From TrEMBL:
Subcellular location: Golgi apparatus membrane
Family: Belongs to the sulfotransferase 3 family.
Lineage: Eukaryota, Metazoa, Ecdysozoa, Arthropoda, Hexapoda
The organism of origin for this protein: Popillia japonica (Japanese beetle)
Protein name: Sulfotransferase family
GO annotations of cellular component type: Golgi membrane
Length: 330
């Protein structure tokens, strides 16, 4: 009888010990799950914070490429989408920044956290942030057919535009046509004046600003592919906005619809512009500078059409992460 009682007590003790072990194991698993949950929540918070606060977009806008129309959209939707837009105004319209200003601008842009997310825009050459900071912004830009841009700028200096019609431009009163300018070999229509889009994409190296420099063209193409999120063309501004909205909806949500429904697509037009004659076009196209600038334009156009095709035509495309090793404890 005594032995039976001992066996019962022993069995009961074993049962209690077994359940205590199970409870301990379940408690450990619960703690592990709780820790993993908090870890995931903190990760989500960090992602949300970075998404909201840290986006920096640099738009180093080339003159007379439709930049006013595009940046007008950004200014109009920035309050609704909760981001900032800041103009970088450089004295004397100088497109090349001094070395101290290069360093200073990079430091200010990357550390001005209260302004993030933000779009900075201004007429200045590509600036390599990696030389001065570990933070790399998202560069965007627009490019235009080089002769169209030159002709537009030529008449803009003489007649102004409908954006600020009251402003008297520096060539006001000069009624010489672009054709006559080319015929008379005047400096305002010198093909070397087209050497601007290549330097804007090339950057701050001395060779970038030498008209006809082959290294500058190669560097401009390399930067366009490797260091710009998107480069659109003036002639297809609507799809430039659409691709940006699809890619960075945090900033550009609703931008396409607004662009199409507002007057932003025709915000700034030269008051008077006479298309050049065939003889003028042929003469300009014989220049090395036009050929190189047009090379960059065609390169950018082909790349933009490729990006546009694989963005706007494949919006239903999905991706997922799978086969993750080693497996996490569950």
């Amino acid at each position: 009888m005594f032995k039976i009682k001992l066996l019962v007590i022993f069995f009961a003790a074993c049962v209690v010990l077994f359940f205590q072990c199970q409870i301990f194991q379940l408690s450990q698993e619960l703690n592990s799950l709780r820790n993993e949950y908090h870890k995931q929540i903190n990760t989500i918070k960090v992602v949300k914070k970075n998404t909201k606060d840290d986006a920096i977009i640099i738009y180093n806008r080339v003159p007379k490429t439709g930049s006013t129309s595009f940046i007008g959209v950004a200014y109009d939707i920035c309050k609704k989408n909760d981001f900032h837009v800041i103009h970088v105004n450089i004295s004397s319209n100088n497109h090349v920044l001094s070395l101290p200003n290069q360093y200073s601008i990079v430091q200010n842009i990357t550390k001005w956290n209260d302004m993030k997310p933000v779009i900075y825009h201004g007429h200045f050459a590509y600036l390599d942030f990696a030389k001065y900071s570990s933070i790399k912004p998202l560069y965007i830009n627009l490019i235009r057919k080089p002769l169209d841009r030159l002709v537009s700028y030529y008449y803009f200096l003489r007649y102004g535009d409908n954006y600020r019609p009251y402003l008297i431009r520096k060539k006001h009163g000069d009624t010489m046509t672009f054709d006559d300018c080319v015929k008379n070999n005047q400096p305002d229509c010198d093909p070397n004046n087209m050497w601007l889009q290549i330097p804007f994409f090339c950057g701050h190296a001395v060779n970038c600003w030498k008209p006809g420099n082959k290294w500058a063209l190669a560097e401009a193409k390399k930067n366009l592919i490797n260091n710009y999120l998107l480069v659109g063309v003036t002639e297809d501004l609507t799809n430039f906005v659409a691709v940006l909205e699809s890619t960075v909806p945090r900033i550009f949500k609703g931008a396409t619809e607004y662009f199409l429904s507002s007057n932003k697509s025709h915000l700034r037009q030269t008051v008077q512009k006479i298309p050049p004659s065939d003889a003028t076009v042929k003469k300009i196209q014989n220049s090395v500078v036009w050929q190189m600038e047009n090379d960059l334009y065609e390169f950018a156009l082909e790349q933009f059409n490729f990006v546009k095709k694989h963005t706007l035509n494949e919006r239903s495309q999905k991706y997922m992460f799978e086969k993750i090793r080693p497996k996490t404890n569950t």
